[in-house]
Design goal:
The two termini are 14 Å apart. Strand 2, helix 2 and strand 3 form a beta-alpha-beta unit. The chain has a single domain, classed as 3-Layer(aba) Sandwich (Rossmann fold). Helices cover 31% and strands 17% of the residues. The relative contact order is 0.18. The protein is built from seven helices and ten strands. With 241 residues, it is α/β, with parallel strands linked by helices. The strands form two sheets. Strands 1-10-9-6-2-3-5 form a seven-stranded parallel beta sheet, sandwiched between helices. It has a three-stranded antiparallel beta sheet with strand order 4-8-7, with helices on one face. The structure holds 2-amino-2-deoxy-6-O-phosphono-alpha-D-glucopyranose (GLP). One of its GO terms (molecular function) is glucosamine-6-phosphate deaminase activity. Belongs to the glucosamine/galactosamine-6-phosphate isomerase family. NagB subfamily.
Length: 241
């Protein structure tokens, strides 16, 4: 595992964007796994800036997002569909047909999960998976549990996760109770994983995830088994390592 610590958010965002952009520049038809949340916003901004400078084209890339809320209209301001358009897709040349986000409004959610896994299989392995980290150690929406699920599945969101995400909604009652998420099996199959963590409020959980024994109670701890993990931390998040 390669842990890089940055003394400014700007440097961290630049480093994260560089890793993703060079992946797209060097791997023909790169398959990217993308994440949402507050953490990657600055990285996406740098990627858009690189695209606008003509440094990179996403025409031949494919993307798969980690997760999406269940029963939140795709045009809702807090859907991950809206998030991705706002922060990335509307500003780059990644063709719409090559962008994938699980459909949390599908009439048959189980079938949607199977369809999503098939689409990932068809695209081949994910070359680079971008990940944020939940305060309870979740990755994607794989919440702490007695057992973790390999492929895309429906998940009941932990109260802690709903509370953390309530900041984006009018009230906690508006935060969906379920989501669809890629499973840990799919995440761990990615050739390279880029985990990005910012803030003192995540110092405890990133320490547990990277340095304590591997446990399904901290899903991110499974990343310790990955042969090609890059971790980008700001100094606050790295405070307890
Ligand atoms: C969210 C997402 C995750 C994200 C995590 C941390 O709910 N499902 O993919 O990594 O929680 O979010 P943030 O970056 O806003 O702290």
């Amino acid at each position: 595992m390669n842990i890089l610590i940055f003394d400014s958010e700007e440097k961290l965002n630049l480093a994260g964007a560089n890793i993703i952009v060079s992946q797209v520049q060097t791997v023909p038809r790169a398959v990217l796994g993308l994440a949402t949340g507050g953490t990657p916003v600055g990285i996406y901004k740098e990627i858009v800036s690189d695209f606008q400078k003509g440094m990179v084209s996403f025409r031949n890339a494919t993307s798969f997002n980690l997760d999406e809320y269940v029963n939140l209209k795709s045009d809702h301001p807090e859907s991950y569909y809206t998030y991705m358009n706002t922060h990335l897709f509307a500003h780059i040349d990644l063709p719409e047909a090559q962008r994938h986000i699980p459909n949390g409004n599908a009439s048959d959610l189980e079938a949607e999960c199977a369809r999503y896994d098939e689409a990932i299989e068809l695209a081949g392995q994910i070359d680079l998976q971008l990940l944020g980290l939940g305060h309870n150690g979740h990755i994607g929406f794989n919440e702490p549990a007695h057992a973790l699920i390999k492929g895309t599945h429906i998940v009941e969101l932990a109260e802690k996760t709903r509370e953390a995400n309530a900041r984006f909604f009018d009230s906690i009652d508006d935060v969906p109770k379920q989501a669809l998420t890629m499973g840990v099996g799919t995440i761990l199959k990615a050739k390279k994983i880029l985990l990005v963590v910012k803030g003192a409020d995540k110092a405890d959980i990133i320490q547990k995830a990277l340095q304590d024994p591997i446990t399904t109670d901290v899903p991110a701890s499974l990343l310790q088994t990955h042969p090609n993990l890059i971790v980008l931390l700001d100094s606050a998040a790295a405070g307890k390592l």
